[in-house]
Amino acid sequence: MNNKCEEILEISHVTNRYRDSGAGFFSKSKMTRVLNDVSLTIHRDEIFGLVGESGCGKSTLGKAVLGLIPFEGQIRVNGMEYSRKNRNEFTRCVQAVFQDPLSSLNPRRTIAATLEEPLLAHGIGTPQSRREKAVEMLELVGLDGSYADRLPRDLSGGQRQRVCIGAALMIDPELVIADEATSALDVSVGAQILNLFQEIHDRKDFAMLFISHNLNVVYYLCDRIAVMYRGSIVEMGDAESLYNSPMHPYTRTLLSAIPEIEEGDILSRYGYEETRRESVEDGCDFYHRCPFATEQCRKRPDLTDVLSRESGGQKGREHLVRCWNPVS
Ligand SMILES: Nc1ncnc2c1ncn2[C@@H]1O[C@H](COP(=O)(O)OP(=O)(O)O)[C@@H](O)[C@H]1O
Ligand SMILES: [Mg+2]
Q1: How many other CB atoms sit within 10 Å of the CB of residue 63?
Q2: What is d(CA 290, CA 323) in angstroms, rounded to the nearest whole number?
Q3: Which of 204, 215, 293, 312 is found 20 to 30 A from 260 (Cα to Cα)?
Q4: Is 56 exposed, middle or buried (0-12, 13-18, 19+ CB in 10 A)?
Q5: What is the CATH number for 114?
Q6: Dihedral of the CA atoms 274, 279, 285, 287 (nearest 10)?
Q7: Model-level pTM?
Q8: In this structure, which residue's CA is closest to atom 10 in ligand 1?
Q9: Are residues 48 and 111 in the same domain?
């Protein structure tokens, strides 16, 4: 095993663009920016939440961490940058759980075979030891050992997601990315899966990047939270501090948000006037909607540590906001 880094995940200045397919055949294709200079660090064994509304770039960041898409900047998992050469070692370190358990599972493969697959792929164990580990894993994720020989179609949505979580944990990864892992489930089933993440995290050593559009869900599970808007992190800090004293106007709208309603409705529900300015390239990402925007906001603010600005820095606590005039 290689040395263990203090920080399991280090994302530095990651930007991602894709070529806009909307452009006509003869017109110059335009690049659209999905991630805008994202930097964050996840400590060993921590549960870190990434939250923001649909389309803001959360899954794109998850894919970049998994080595699935190209990006500018640097991402290190346990000190390692993804490359074809270290692909094996890298995937042993980081595993993922996605929104839709049914499409993650092979319909013809038994639950035991699904769980054993990652071990097989990495050449770990014997048929017997793999089977034993699969049955142990079933119990860890709250399923009876008798499920081993069943097929995905015999299971409910929540049970299937338990299998996906088990499969992700079979090779003892150090980082698990959960991308909207409870979002497709009924509220009560989703809550059970959240509790399962919590329980397993208490019993095993891994860090988690937990991605969701729902700030309440993220707050329930996570130690620290980053709020993303239009590909930028606009606020980041300890869960308590961020949830109970949100300082970015956008975070405040997210807190009052019901996911289904339009952004404009969210703003008005929160008592904000409908504000529609032109957005400014390289200005604050929230400029065009923010009720408090001033001339200064045409320039992009940095992600700034508010605690040290206000109280001379309190060790061990963190709360950063990308806003010239944070709400307090
Ligand atoms: N290759 C691509 N082609 C076209 N659009 C893309 C591509 N990759 C990402 N996008 C767009 O980037 C934005 C961010 O997507 P995504 O990361 O999936 O957001 P989230 O997970 O926060 O809902 C979306 O508007 C999506 O349509
Ligand atoms: Mg997504």
Answers
A1: 16
A2: 11
A3: 293
A4: buried
A5: 3.40.50.300
A6: -50
A7: 0.91
A8: 34
A9: yes
